[in-house]
Amino acid sequence: MLKESWPTFQDLVAWNVEFPVEIDKMNDYERVTYSKKYQPAFLAPPFGKLPLRHRKTAPVLRKQAEKAGAKIMDRITVTDLLKQDGQVVGAIGFPAESYDLYIFKAKATVISGGNSCFRSPGYHTSMLTGDADGMAYRAGAEITGKEFPDTHFNLANYPAWKSNAELYPAYFYFTDAEGKYIEHSGMDLSMAFTVHAGKGPVLYDLDAATPEDVASMQEYIRKRANPVEVERIGLDVSRGGKYQVIGGSAAGYSDPQTSGIWVIDTKGTTSLPGLYAAGDCCGTRACGAIHTAGGWGLAGAAVTGKRAGAGAAEYALQAEKPVIDEEELARLKKIVYVPAERKGGFSPRWVTQLLQNTMTPYFILYIKHGERLQAALTIVEFLRDHLVPKLMVKDAHELRLAHETKNMVFNAEMMLRSSLFRTESRGVHYREDYPRRDDPPWLAWTKIKEEQGRMKLLKEPVPKEWWPDLSKPYKERYDLRFPGESVE
Q: How far is it, in rounded angstroms, from Cα 115 to Cα 282?
């Protein structure tokens, strides 16, 4: 990613993708969003992030794909991957307007279906339902990193889905309810720890900003924010003010570039022949146990997209034309349309609401404990075994919701089981009952694989050349301290 994100960016510029900054006139420090008072270490130059123009990138990329000869089919809900003799040979799905069946036969298949989220209100990833992970898991692929959540947040009066202005992460004036400044990187669990200690709500405190910082914020807003949205919500940094922060607004959102479909090389190859992964669902493990910095999700998606495309093309050139068993097609077709054939049952919206109620409280996926994880898992297993098989829909739109609900339940189970399996704390995975890193037993990735209808959890050791220096005392090896952690 470090090597190839820059040439990928240059490709976007050459294709006339718009960026809301004058790139040629920026120096290294201007490429980075930072506060003069509280500059996070992970935003230090020469690395930085550049925002894209909201909703203007996809049409440009679509034109490039069509120019290359790609045939694009819109509004198709893909529900499952097709397999023949242990290889992925395509996919199956239906359109948004009808119950017609679409069968896609392919020598190689690239899956880039986003990440998983439980549609938490106010967050712009609310549409990502983990379909890619669900489909790949059911086909027999391995899934990794589900115990590491994404810790993005948003302001109560400025939901992140309203625009991509990203006003609040630029300047880290966060305080607890008592006015004490919160040391916060933007990617860690500081807010969750503050709330758990009974010191919430967390506030974005513009009153603490210096005149120089206010001027910098105004310049940042002028260059990069959506002025209509800023005016609509009445955010005037020159007047100061305190804004409540909603921590964990991305509840259930797996950390991109850490979790997803396990890949075995840098071509995006999965453990299933014929299947390649790209984007947020590609489990590169590049960010490790904590999201490294802003912009890695998009950079990783762009680079893995280029690599998976090339890897799939290389595979397809030597693969034979797929022949799909009619009995397998009939089996999958029956699974696709079961909810539409039921006369009674449960609404996918209602089941989704139950899942949200179970998974989104901060004390499930952020401040974890074995007993609470097991309690949540018991509920999710009930949803999986009793409610999901009895989902009922009235049209193709609701049928899409039913399949998304099923995938969200799958992802919830994977998150809970991975969190129970990793009996330590590391990065953004914090267990109150295991508040310490456990080296070397847990210098390993977790993997999930379907086995006889159940999820099997596995360890994949991290190569020893990537280990920390175990000869150092624990308190010298790690600077970050978890609540309740002993360093002796």
A: 9
Pairing of strands 367-368, 275-277: unpaired
Strands of the 76-84 sheet, one edge to the other: 76-84, 87-95, 102-105
Residue 99's alpha-carbon distances to 48, 132, 135, 225, in angstroms, are 46, 21, 20, 42
Compute the distance between CA of residue 126 and CA of residue 128 in angstroms, rounded to an integer.
6
* pLDDT tens-digit series, residues 281-290: 999 998 889 8
What are the percentages of helix, strand and coil residues in the chain, rounded to 5? 40, 15, 45
Contact 150, 255 (CB under 8 A): yes
Mean pLDDT of 213-238: 64
Query: By three-state DSSP, how is residue 175 classified?
Result: strand
pLDDT for residue 260 is more than 80: yes
pLDDT at 21: 59
Number of Cβ within a 10 Å radius of residue 392: 17
Q: Which two tokens stand for residue 476?
A: 């010298």
pLDDT of 168: 47
Q: Which amino acid, one-letter code, is at 421? A: F
> For residue 400, what pLDDT band results from cuts at 50, 70 and 90?
very high
Percentage with pLDDT > 90 across the chain: 55
Cα distances (Å, whole numbers) of residue 143 to 22, 130, 146, 264, 427: 40, 11, 8, 12, 19
How does strand 76-84 pair with strand 87-95? antiparallel
In whole angstroms, how far apart are CA 376 and each of 197, 288, 360, 373, 429? Answer: 22, 25, 11, 5, 16
Place of tokens 């890949």: 263
Amino acid at 6: W
- Bridge partners of 246, per DSSP, are 154
Instruction: Say what the pTM is.
Output: 0.90
Sheet strands (E) in 290-390 = 367-368
Taking the chain, what is the end-to-end CA distance rounded to the nearest angstrom?
37
Q: How many CB atoms lie within 10 A of CB 333?
A: 16
